[in-house]
Specification:
Elements (H helix, E strand, L loop, with lengths): L1 H18 L26 H12 L2 E6 L2 E6 L2 H10 L1 H4 L6 H7 L10 H16 L5 H19 L9 H17 L8 H16 L13 H17 L1
Antiparallel strand pairs: 1-2
């Protein structure tokens, strides 16, 4: 019996050591073994919860998502200190599920460090050839603004969801710059592409740094495959 108790105590100590809050980090709410602070608050109540945590622990505190620490920083001076004065140290993107599943940490959006700088330089150089930063692009934007205003006038004083309309408007500017062509606001194929983009960003929501980045990648790929298959069948 004592051997069993000793083994249990050792296991609990090991679990606490390797899944608890590491030493040297800012204070934070009580960290439980394995789960950390998961379930501390609902995603829909995140803003209110962080306000309470800020009052209790100050402008800088630590939240553990399983064994991964996430440090929350509040206050203009603190954020400026991190992102402006020490931007080279804190500007990298966190390692997330979607980052690894979709593009292996590459590409303009999800890349980080030297690769991001290289991709950004290439993108800006290429976009300038298409009119980015020049007056011709301003003309394209103003033309699309006129089309947007005409589209909004169709609704009169009736309330409506403006999100899809704005998405089409912004996408039209990009299409005009890259392809030399824009699409009508009622174009069925173009509207379908916008819907697919919205679904893509919705599916990418687990990229939050608060999500456990060590989830089984193969299982997540299977889930994404099922989601895409169901979208195609629908």
């Amino acid at each position: 019996m004592w051997v069993t108790v000793a083994i249990v105590v050792v296991l609990i100590a090991l679990i606490w050591r390797y899944t608890g809050r590491p030493k040297g980090l800012p204070p934070g709410p009580t960290c439980y073994p394995i789960i950390g602070n998961v379930g501390l608050f609902k995603p829909s109540e995140a803003i209110q919860a962080h306000r309470k945590l800020r009052k209790k622990y100050g402008d800088i505190y630590t939240i553990m998502t399983f064994h991964k620490p996430m440090i929350a920083v509040h206050g203009y001076d603190n954020i400026r200190e991190l992102l402006v004065k020490h931007g080279d140290l804190f500007s990298d993107r966190p390692l997330t599920i979607m980052n690894g599943v979709f593009n292996k940490g590459k590409g303009l959006i999800w890349s980080s460090g030297p690769l991001w700088k290289e991709q950004r330089t290439f993108a800006l150089t290429t976009m300038r050839k298409f009119g980015f930063g020049k007056r011709c692009l301003q003309n394209q934007i103003m033309e699309e603004v006129d089309c947007l205003m005409e589209e909004l006038e169709k609704y009169g004083n009736k309330p409506f969801d403006i999100q899809n309309t704005l998405n089409i408007s912004v996408s039209n500017v990009i299409c005009s710059m890259l392809f030399g062509n824009r699409f009508d606001y009622e174009d069925a194929r173009f509207k379908h592409l916008i819907v697919l983009l919205n679904k893509l960003f919705a599916t990418s929501s687990p990229s939050s740094p608060a999500m456990p980045s060590y989830w089984n990648k193969k299982w997540h790929e299977k889930i994404l495959h099922l989601q895409m298959s169901s979208s195609k069948s629908a």
